[in-house]
Amino acid sequence: MKDKTKTMLFISSAIILCTCFTSITHAEPTVMVTSYSLDPGILFPGDTAELTVTLTNTEITGTKTDTDYINGLPVDQKIDTIAATLDKVWITDDGDGTNLIRSEKSFNNIGDLSPGSSLTLSFQITADENISEGQYHPIIRVDVEDYQDVKYPIPIRIDNRSVSLLPDDAPSKISIGGTTDISFNVVNNRMDSVEGITLTSNNNNELEFNPNSIFIGSLESGESKEVTISLHPNELGKKKLSLILSYFNANNPHSHTYNSNIEIIEVLDVAPILYSVPTTIEKGQSTRISLEVYNAKTETITGVIVKPITEATIIPTQYYIGSMDADDVFSATFDLYTDEIDYGNHTMDFQVSFKQGNEIYETPAISSSFTVVPMDDSSVNRGFILPVGIIASAVVSVVLFFEYKKRRRNGK
């Protein structure tokens, strides 16, 4: 019995002794940056971006056990949650001290982050305007009370490549008559998309164009889009075409100016071409005038009308052609009468009107001169001999007819 009692006391003492060495059982919290996002993903120098960071306490044990002892015996047992206390979260440079990418914002006295839980924080970061192209690594710093702090570098790319406005069909000289279309290609040279692309007229632009603003929208990396504007010059000379291409990299506005010198000249790209016009016309006579209308423009024109301008009588008073595609040629003829005009020199003009877009244009007049002269004697004699000859022929025919009938009667 004594031996049994001694054995029980030994076991109890061993249990108490082991308990003294296992008074606390818990795991320390571990805070990590588990995800982040940057908008926009690639920055221009001077751009701002929103950096969103998610911090997670990756420890999955939810409690810790603290045991108090008096005289070697367990007296009180306290159960606490293991949490990471976040004192401060902020962003620093990547070690060179230049702060070329910086954030003025920091989060202080955030509080506890329990096991398995996450916290998302947003920072506005700014790239210096004089920053060079390349990859940078500003550091997320997390001050964790009583436990290991966090230092996590975030890769950020700076890229100077922009959106280009490239002329596709932009002549150095255009006609003052009507409108001339000019085409451009808008190309996104960046590694990410851009939005809100708009082409507008600069304030110091010396040429009117329509439409005066073109909204293009968004372009993915490497994507391009063609745009066309219609110039409507109203005076001759060398003029400056100045356009502004604006767009957004996320919330960051950017713009580039395109300048081009264009000379406005007087070229009849829509005009009548006279190819059969007499220089002299006898009084009282008529003659035919032939011409062609050529559309040298790069687009269709409508409502094309040729108008003769002269004091002589001319028929028709206008020649309606209608629609003409680019490089089309149409012929037109007019009959000119000299009955009601005096002898001497006279002029005859031809003008073409047409519609392009919503505007109506008139070309400068093409002039030709002619002289009205009296009929010469040969013309008069020819005019008299012809009817006399016809009458004589008719009389002879009648005589021969009756003579033929008379002989037939006698023959019977």
Over all CA atoms, what is the radius of gyration?
49 Å
CATH topology of the largest domain: Immunoglobulin-like
Structure class: mainly beta
Instruction: Give the end-to-end Cα distance, rounded to a whole number of Å.
Output: 192 Å
The major sheet is characterized as: 6 strands, mixed
Number of strands: 33
Going by CATH, the architecture of the largest domain would be Sandwich
> How many domains?
3
CATH class group of the largest domain: Mainly Beta
- Indicate the low-confidence ranges by residue numbers: 7-27, 380-402, 404-412
The number of helical runs is 2
- The coarse overall form would be rod-shaped
Helicity level: 10-25%
Q: Average pLDDT, to the nearest integer?
A: 81
Proportion of beta-strand residues: over 45%
In short:
The protein has 412 residues and is mainly β.
Topology readout:
Layout: H1 2-21, E1 24-25, E2 31-39, E3 42-43, E4 48-57, E5 63-70, E6 73-81, E7 84-92, E8 101-102, E9 107-113, E10 118-127, E11 134-136, E12 139-145, E13 150-153, E14 156-158, E15 163-169, E16 173-175, E17 180-188, E18 194-201, E19 209-210, E20 213-219, E21 224-231, E22 237-249, E23 252-265, E24 270-276, E25 280-282, E26 286-295, E27 301-309, E28 313-315, E29 319-324, E30 329-337, E31 344-356, E32 359-362, E33 366-373, H2 377-411
Parallel strand pairs: 3-14, 16-23, 25-33
Antiparallel strand pairs: 1-5, 2-4, 4-10, 5-6, 7-9, 7-12, 8-10, 11-14, 12-13, 15-17, 17-21, 18-20, 18-22, 19-21, 22-23, 24-26, 26-30, 27-29, 27-31, 28-30, 31-32, 31-33
